[in-house]
Amino acid sequence: MRKKIVAGNWKMNLDYNEGLGLFSEIINMFKDEATGKQQAVICSPFIQLHSLAQLAKGYTNVAVGAQNAHQAESGAYTGEISAKMIKSVGAEYVILGHSERRQYFGESNELLAAKTDTALKNDLKPIFCIGETLQEREAEEHFNIIKSQLVEGVFHLDETDFAKLVIAYEPVWAIGTGVTASSDQAQEIHAFIRIEIAAKYGQEIAANTTILYGGSCNPKNAPELFAQPDIDGGLIGGASLKSRDFIDIVKVFN
Ligand code: PGA
User: Fold this and answer.
1) 168 Cβ below 6 A of ligand 1
2) How high is the pLDDT of residue 36?
3) Is the pTM higher than 0.90?
4) What percent of the chain has pLDDT over 70?
5) Could you give the residue numbers annotated as active site?
6) Of 13, 37, 23, 35, nearest to 243 (Cα)?
7) N or C terminus: which one in the chain shows less Cβ crowding within 10 Å?
8) Domain residue spans of the chain
9) 238 CA to centre of ligand 1 in angstroms
């Protein structure tokens, strides 16, 4: 059975101590309240990764991840952080292709394919984000956009590597807007993603791929979203900055 995952994306929020404080609250609540087999992943800014990974030791269902990694192994890229560096501080995951990276930093599917390769080579599990803009949905292009993000971003991988990915569907119009995709809209795309994976890699890999929903997910709407057959958890932005809200979303799987 595929893994149920609730991942928090802190984005560029919280200073060092604020992040440590929030993470301590989260792991304590996780220990006391989250009784299922679900996995929580906190994707913090780089500066906290090492400390959070230390705090997470001993909690098999809590992991930490980065929000980006460079495509090169190392070299003269002032200000950048490599996958190897991220791995070396104890992080297990890395978000790649978030719509904010695509939009504000011009990250293309081609670049993201290279980032995915480097992350996998360094033993990080990518949480690979895909999703259409409002304009694309209104033009009824959303299925084509999702398909090309998959084909150009990750379908070059072999089966073994593909099986290490987590996919996150995040409609851009739902991120940070308070507007969520309805559970039917989300399920429709998640089912489509799984069908595309099955066509490329076969039923077994498709059935085992964790596909997260992201975009204004909160404790109120998570139960209905996560009840959909092809939604295996969430990638949570705003609500991951409040320990109570984040844990209540994790607990939907109890
Ligand atoms: P949001 O962000 O939950 O604040 O909409 C989700 C994301 O960007 O991953």
Assistant:
1) no
2) 87
3) yes
4) 100
5) 98, 170
6) 23
7) N
8) 5-253
9) 6
